[in-house]
Amino acid sequence: MKIQKQQAMRTVLYGLAPLCFAALYFFGWRFIATLAVVNATGLLCEWLMFKRYGFKVTESLFVSCTLFALSLPPTIPLWIAAMGIAFGIIFGKMVFGGFGKNIFNPAITARAFVYISFGVPMTAAFVEDATSLGFFPAALGSWLSKADSVSAATPLVTKGEPLLDLFLGFTSGSFGETSALLILLGGLYIIYKKAANWKIVVASLLSFTLLQTIFWASGLQITTEHGLVGVSSPLVALFSGSFLLAAFFMITDPVSASQSTDAGRWIYGALFGLLTVLIRTFSTWIEGVTFAILIANMFAPLLDTLLKSAKAKKKQKGAQGGAA
Predict the structure, then answer these.
(1) Which domain holds residue 306?
(2) What's the pTM?
(3) Residue at 318 is within a domain
(4) Domain for residue 191, yes or no?
(5) Is 223 helix (H, G, I), strand (E, B) or coil?
(6) In the Cβ-directed half-sphere of 217, how many Cα atoms lie within 13 Å?
(7) How many domains in the chain?
(8) Domain contains 193
(9) 3-state secondary structure (DSSP) of residue 190
(10) Sign of the CA dihedral 251, 257, 258, 260?
């Protein structure tokens, strides 16, 4: 099987490598099993489509598979992980014609499928606080942490998580979302290497922080199963859940993002940040990132078309005015 090389995709994988090592450190060898199953299933699906329709197998596949694996909770059954990536690769990418033609991000398509189809394993089975594992060897000697059979809520639900723990990664959550520090380092690396557009990232962060700050400063309270709870502070919201991972590694996908104009990139990134806060605050989907990305992906082609059309009309009027 010949796999088409893509240097930009390889750069993204380098940026994700620290998160993979952290997932192994915090949650044990189950992450390696999940990553292996997801990559093997994704590769098989893309190869079968290649054999049938002649689509190319590209290195972007491994980025999609790695991102999907990192977005999963540590106790996710392996067969659900396999079903998710199969759906994401086939229906989120290959049915559109393969890499470069897909509308939606394949990794987030896969996550949305399992999030809707298998709600309990995706939202309730988060591994307990990783701080009890110690600094070394942490979970390196186990299949999963000591909380193998214990369910705990994501930090988006439970309040009072120490900010430093959220920043470093000593908290509950999905495989790749716990350490804001490593996400920032990997994200800055791919921006430096021009594998991700900084305008989309900055627009996402600014819009998210601005709206979250407005809600927090106004004292807004939301109804949860625990009663009325105040909206999280901007830093806690930023470091909790998978927003940072999505802002650097998912929303910047060169195919499904708005890429035609700088104005489109700013609007696209801002749309994602605002939608994430709104969905987190006012819907029953506590994470928000998954559906915010899919909605932004859906509007990206229309956004590019409108902005390019407006730019062309402005240029045409300028040319007519100059001729007159």
Answers:
(1) 3-312
(2) 0.85
(3) no
(4) yes
(5) strand
(6) 7
(7) 1
(8) yes
(9) helix
(10) positive
